[in-house]
Specification:
heterodimer, A: 315 residues, mainly alpha, ABC transporter involved in vitamin B12 uptake, BtuC, two-stranded antiparallel sheet, 15 helices, 2 strands, 1% strand, B: 248 residues, alpha/beta, Rossmann fold, 6-stranded mixed β-sheet, 10 helices, 40% helix
């Protein structure tokens, strides 16, 4: 019974959101597609960064592999979008697994720097490949309606959230959390840490790749600078951290709040929106390192809780 | 036949031999005390046997099968568990969740779903006397409680051989007596143990045999009464001059 109530609420929300385009302006539909995209990316980052505790600063590489695989197949072959997208997700997953095997041996800052390097390298690789359109980019066939993107992104978001929920309530997820908390103890207790980390990274990469594939077709034009943007990775991280790393709904909540606020601000003043992101990082790290979900779930809501958080994270 | 047999185990860090040519047998159902001064290589030996550090030489046979080269998780799943001298709790998890990890990933016959893992973890917490703290976050435990949780996690893995690395450090005399009783009950449950401990009273009453390490080498091995009174052992702990004075 405990599981049925949240499942029903979740289903109701998805149905409601799914019906929304009928009454929303085209602008809001586009905004929601973008919001879903950021939410999937935050949820996918959460798998490796939140549950497993490996702060990847290069997840945009998987997003890019997905975007370019899908893009190349759409422009150079007659493959339908569904297959091109599947190929994009699969290749991103494979890429994450292959690249993960060596770099997941690194820890902390070293892992973060290595992932950053992978993403930057991928941009340079794409710049210099003929098949990807090099520096000039790729122009996709134009799609008539934004609705397919809306529903595919929504579907990805549901799937990514379900995977995160599964991690929170499964043996595999316990293994990842144990690795995050103490990798030596996890290994001594029988967890194949190398395999678990690689699978988590591949899962994270698969969702980022699928998102990238949808993004490419939706945005209709991709070039290396538009796809492999460091800020995209930063956004994933901020949203996951703001909402609550290692929680199921935190990254989603973080994406909804931050994307909405930043959209509102940017209609007023672009510089303000940029500043806002900076402020959010500082405030969250200082006062709610466990994220919004933790703050909302903890009652009574008190200053002491903030103080405890600050102490626990030795800031 | 010995359930665990160390053969000339050697571990060098650069030019320093932290463990050098150490051999010992652990019989089934035995408690083997492993003692020696600080820096004598006890923890390094455990780290090598449990797969946390690679060997420089020798091997360890578990039921006749060599453990050398196996990764730590594979050794854990074969039924060899350990605790850490510096405890390594999964801080953000509750006590029962910490122990569940052991049940979920330990030796064959353990739980593979969360419900039965939780049930098994509860049993183990009852056994070590920590069930009143089951739902507390691990980071809120004091040192003796953390040591107990460390022990509970290792037990939840259903080991046949268990290495305890200073689980009694920081306990008061009453708690030490309780820990000694607990370890005997673990042995009575069919587990063979290697116990590293500085508390001599506990080692004396627990151990069937004692191995003494000194500068990474096995100094002596034998029954507690023989080993603990041996002049070389007193010398290793307190200095040769003190041992000579004590004899004079």
């Amino acid at each position: 019974m405990r599981r049925i109530a949240p499942a029903l609420v979740g289903l109701a929300v998805v149905v409601l959101v799914g019906a929304a385009p009928a009454v929303l302006s085209p602008f809001l539909v586009q905004f929601l597609i973008n919001l879903f995209m950021l939410a999937v990316l935050a949820e996918s980052w959460n798998i490796i960064g939140g549950f497993t505790g490996y702060a990847s600063f290069g997840n945009v590489a998987f997003f890019g592999v997905g975007a370019y695989t899908t893009g190349v197949l759409l422009t150079r072959t007659a493959l339908p979008f569904g297959l091109a997208l599947t190929a994009g997700g699969a290749l991103a997953m494979l890429f994450a697994a292959v690249i993960g095997m060596p770099i997941l041996r690194l820890k902390g800052h070293y892992f973060a720097i290595a992932t950053l390097g992978v993403a930057e390298t991928m941009r340079e690789v794409v710049y210099n490949l003929e098949v990807t359109g090099a520096g000039t980019g790729l122009v996709m066939p134009i799609s008539r309606s934004p609705l397919p993107f809306f529903y595919v992104m929504l579907g990805l978001l549901v799937a990514a959230t379900l995977v995160n929920w599964w991690l929170s309530a499964s043996r595999f997820g316990y293994g990842l959390v144990a690795i995050r908390e103490d990798e030596d103890a996890a290994a001594a207790m029988g967890i194949d840490t190398a395999r678990y980390k690689t699978v988590a990274f591949a899962l994270s990469g698969a969702f980022a790749g699928l998102t990238g594939g949808v993004f490419a077709y939706w945005i209709t034009f991709i070039d290396p600078d538009a796809v492999f943007r460091v800020i995209t990775t930063i956004q994933m991280i901020i949203m996951a951290v703001f909402g609550g790393m290692g929680t199921v709904l935190g990254p989603l909540l973080g994406a909804v709040v931050l994307a909405s606020v930043s959209e509102l601000l940017s209609t007023q003043l672009v510089a303000l929106a940029e500043l806002f992101n900076g402020f959010i990082i500082i405030l969250v790290v200082l006062f709610m390192p466990r994220g919004l979900v933790d703050v909302l779930a903890t009652r009574p809501f008190s200053l002491r809780r903030f103080a405890d958080n600050v102490r626990a994270y030795r800031i | 036949m010995a359930i665990l047999a160390a053969r000339q185990v050697t571990k060098r860090f650069g030019g320093l031999a932290a463990v050098s040519g150490v051999s010992f047998d652990l019989a089934e159902g035995e408690i083997l005390g492993l003692i020696g001064p600080n820096g004598s290589g006890k923890t390094t030996l455990v780290n090598v046997v449990s797969g946390m550090l690679p060997y420089s030489g020798g091997e360890v046979l578990f039921r006749g099968r060599s453990l050398r080269g196996l990764p730590a998780h594979a050794i854990g799943r074969l039924g060899l568990s350990r605790t850490f001298q510096v405890v390594k709790p999964f801080r953000s998890l509750t006590v029962v969740q910490n122990v569940m990890v052991g049940a979920l990933f330990g030796a064959r016959g353990g739980a593979r779903d969360l419900e039965s893992a939780r049930w098994q973890a509860r049993q183990v917490l009852d056994f070590v006397g920590l069930s009143h703290r089951a739902e507390a976050p691990a980071e809120g435990l004091n040192v003796p409680e953390r040591k107990r949780m460390e022990l509970a996690r290792a037990l939840a893995m259903r080991p046949t051989v268990l290495f305890l690395d200073e689980v009694m450090a920081g306990l008061n005399p009453a708690e030490i007596d309780a820990a000694v009783e607990l370890i005997k009950r673990i042995r009575d449950g069919g587990v063979s143990l290697v116990v590293i401990e500085h508390v001599m009273k506990a080692i004396r009453s627990l151990s069937d045999r004692i191995v003494v390490l000194y500068h990474g080498e096995k100094l002596i091995e034998g029954a507690p009464s023989d080993v603990l009174g041996h002049q070389a052992v007193v010398g290793a702990y307190l200095g040769r001059r003190y041992a000579e004075q004590a004899r004079a």
